[in-house]
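Continuing from the previous page of notes. For each protein in this section, the sequence appears first, followed by its structure tokens. Read the first protein now.
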Amino acid sequence: VIVTSPPRAVRCHISAQQSNKATNNNFHSRFEPKMYFGHTAISTLCLLNFGSFAFADKLLRNRKLGDVGGLSGNGTPRNGLPGNKDEEDDPRRPGGPNLDFGQEADYIVVFKDESSHSSFSQNEMATVNSVRHLSFMNGEVIKLPNAQAAQQWAERDDVLFVEKDQEVRKLAEEVPYGINLVEALNIDYVAGSGVKACIIDTGYALNHPDLPNNINYNNDNLITGFNPYDSGDWSVDGDGHGTHVAGTMAAVGGNSVGVVGVTSKANMPLHIGKGLTDSGTGTTSGVLDAMRSCVENGAKVVNMSLGGGGPSSAVESFLTGLEDDGTNVLFVAAAGNGGSSSYSYPASYDSPLVMSVAAVNSNSVKASFSQYNDQVDIAGPGVNVNSPT
């Protein structure tokens, strides 16, 4: 979806070659960044303008999904995970993706099909401790007591795969330097275009004086949200990270308060997925449920300034289903703050629906903490970015 065409001077163009995940471990030597995104993960308008190219690029569509936990074509393990070529097609194998058989923990159990999940729900649900329902993908998050119990679930004929529900963490009136760096003031969001952005983070301070809200702008659908956890509320941000990200994207301009966002006229609808709690952490299943909510509520661009743990077969399966359905959405995730070439997830999923964004400073130099690897697509301002909290 092309919202508006930026002026020629705006650095919002990227070629099909550049759109593919970088092939050099040092992204900065791979290409001089032609696109920059505010607060590491996103500068929404630039992204909306070129989002259609990411979908239209047939080369991206040829990427193989499903390598997670398996092997590459030459038989070598991918993403540092153990693999056995004779068993690469069996995600339930012992030692498979994120099957951590330690002490009591929550595990994502995905059933083979809707019928298997329905049978479990009718006949066994009352006998287990299900902490979250993932019905949209025939899954449950189940608290299991020990290694033997997890192994037994993994070996059931009606189960597709089992993996640990990993912890996920946040990654880290003035015009911030990033606004000028991406030349955001030269373009604007087209009101009424129907394009909605979503932020998966610690929530949104709905009553913040420098952020859009439904009351002040007389639009009940301007800001909506979802919280997958039992406690907290999407409209309350006890950590401040999600509000900081939201401010980078949409802080109101011309009100003599705080900062100016990339879209500053309070006319871009936002959906908030509280995938992280007020402590700044969450779970894979919580983030996954927030991703579902973003898609179901019509978001075309989803910001994910978070990461932690390894790859998830559940998330990979969800992304594959979206691609197979032709869903028009782009997940924009921070490449990571480890300062190395290691993979961080969700940014490093090898999917055309995921964009990995590294960080640069005000001089467009790679930030010392930014991760760099062959999954990084672009880079953007991510050092000392001022925004509401």
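Done with the first. The second protein uses the same format. Note its length before scrolling.
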Amino acid sequence: GTERRVSRSFARTSPRADDADRRPPTAMGVAWSVLIAEIDASESSSVDEAECRLLFGDAFDEEMWRSAPKDDAGRVTKRTLLQHLGWPSEVFDGRSGTREEARAVNDAAETAARGTPHFYELSPDAARDARRASYVHSAFREDFEVSDAGDDASATIAFAAWRPRDRRTNPSSPEAPLVKPRALYLLFHGGGWVFGDAKGLNDERLEEMADALRVVVLVPDYRKAPERPFPAALDDCEAAAAWCETRARAYFGLDETAPLLIGGESAGGNLCAATLLRRSAKKSEASAKWAFANLVYGIYDVAGTPSVRRFGDRRLVETARDLAYFADCYCPDVDSRTSPEVSPLFADFEKQNLPPASFVVGTEDALVDDTVLMFEKWRAAGNGATLDVWPEGPHGVGHFGIHATTKLGRACRAKVLERIGAFLDAYAYRNA
């Protein structure tokens, strides 16, 4: 029967009992990361409707099945299923390189990490110093501080900013002429809520982003754990968002109708989602001011999604124990970790006023389930959303670390710019 055929083609993993009722429905209770891996590893090249329903369970997408291209026998290909689950077209046309190339980079990184300290074995100051030793500072960065941030205009926030420039005549000179920005992008940096800075951490990439998209990129500093645990970082990020809503357009010379974009990477993705939820809960017109969200390999359940638990001690950027250490630093009160402000995946998205969003993660990231589950909740609540899941991509793919400059990393970074650029073009067309 159908069940026997599917069980031979797709080796199923039993769901964990402690995952029940905590997160959105997944395929037969199985985490999305498991489902993606099963389909990827399957020797079957296609499925019929009954097989697909059995595979996806409650998460079966009627519209996807109706619209998916089928062969003469009414079957859908493995590639179509993987693309439905977020695999970008670049994976199939070669623009992201080969998977063998990416695996070789990952294997080398894991080998090099053996014997080096884990994050949880370093003091917070040692982790900060180690990260700062790799910083590259941009001559084009502007540093400034405001003392009128927050809804009550009383918070002090330090920012780093990059304005778009025309570099066609003198690309390396800080004197390259400025061009009028078409939007502002507020980005919350990563670092496990423990390390990372607005200045130096991502300078070159954000400089390129500002020019490529013709936007102002704005990064606030926020207080770090464990010295300043939750809600300190979130309070600072929300204060920065409130300042942008009322003052940033005038400060940077943007038109009054220029869209405000918001984003976050890793722990910054958590802070971005939590900031949007706070703004929505406080006053709906505030969150409505945010036109688009870019959420990159974020952590949305601080208690740990199934993919975090399965990742274990694998030395690919960060281990499950590293993530647990970051969680202990950020929110030492375990009972508070199911609060939507700490773990946005637990929010009731049906009651929120959220913008369209782009989600990005790699299959070899311990946080892959965080991103896919968050995407599903975002979309199920009626918000526009896109998902890009990069095969062989570890944490940080396309943004920092071992795949910052590989073919895979460059394809991922270009896709992020493509997603944001497509939104800005559509926004300009609608508001012409």
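What the second structure shows: The beta strands are 46-47, 76-77, 142-149, 155-162, 184-188, 216-220, 260-265, 290-296, 357-362, 385-390. Residues 288 and 390 are 30 Å apart (CA to CA). We return to this in next week's lecture.
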